[in-house]
# Entry
Amino acid sequence: MSCRSRLATLNEKLTTLERRIEYIEARDDPSLERHFKGHRDTITSVDFNPNRKQVASGSMDSCLMIWNMKPQMRAYRFVGHKDAILSVEFSPSGHLIASASRDKTVRLWVPSVKGESTTFKAHTGTVRSVSFSGDGQSLVTASDDKTVKVWTVHRQKFLFSLNQHINWVRCARFSPDGRLIVSASDDKTIKVWDKTSRECIHSFCEHGGFVNYVDFHPSGTCVAAAATDNTVKVWDVRMNKLIQHYQVHSGVVNALSFHPSGNYLLTSSNDSTLKILDLLEGRLLYTLHGHQGAVTCARFSRDGDFFASGGSDEQVMVWKTNFDSDTDMIQQKKRRSFINDPDLESTRQLREPHQSIVGEQQFFESSEPDPYTPVEERNPNLKLYPAEQQKPHAEPANLHNVAKTLEHIVGQLDVLTQTVAILEQRLSLTEDKVRECASKQRVTFSLEDSGSHRS
# Structure
């Protein structure tokens, strides 16, 4: 590669880094928008209604709560399960909520004030997970009886069972197109199943601990898993290859959720934090503090503008993402979504984390669900710390590293500029010498020609 082309490449990289810094400085941090308290035990699962007007939560207290996002509307408490609820999910239409329980049943609820529901015995053991297919016509359940089962939503008809796990199955999810099912088990495997053939097409065994949660990337080409070995891993299901490995938590990772754009991954952990990972760059983007104890569940809304979390502190929190506009994110996804790159490196190394302290607070106690009041009014001691206002020990290492990289690149550019200038001078001298030689050669030829004429 010539010096000029190298200079052009470095200039392009410099421009990209400058834009990245501008983006980091302009971007708002995630902020706590809602805080709900009403459960009497650990929250186990949260999900948004697709219309974004409600948030559902399940708890070890055996109750399903529906939190209305409008300030003037009270929450609904649904009672029906005889033991802990371990998983809840809205149907794609938002007209139903499925809940899975330790009482071995699954219930389908209507999210209205009446709370009507139908129930069916799904397994012979605790039902750990329930999830709708993308078209809303099917349900997949996972259980301690070591099976994954698929059901119709209409009349809850049993369709088939997947039976190759040899220990409790913690989680099962459909792919976005409904062709595949992924399941995670205490046998330390993640299995990908073909729904039509009902065969296991691949097993991933790289986790050192039990897998608590698994889900498909919005593109359907990858799956991510959260495990008890404190790690999050992402596999490409086309090449059956590990492509990203994150070790950002200091405790068990309980749950994860992909942003609808596919560019970000939200994780929750026993270390009391939520973390947001930038999948395009393979690095930690934010660390969020708010829960007083283990964060047991987390979920993005369907449009990605919000995410909810629940924990052992019996609280449900709703956060605003404050990412780029949806349009920008969709365009970014189309431009450079890592998930569609078959030549991606097997594992990307993390850079220094950019930590955001988004809330360390004491919350007021309330035995019943109350209409939402602003968090600051509920607790005047609450402080929200954006990324640019770190605690003294929380240095914004990422910006510092970027600045150092920029300085290094600028230095290289200066050296290259000087080198190119010297080469141009040498080229000019060479051209002058060539012209001088050519002139002398013409004189010599002229003299030889005149001598031949005389003879």
Remarks:
- DSSP finds four helices and 28 strands in the chain.
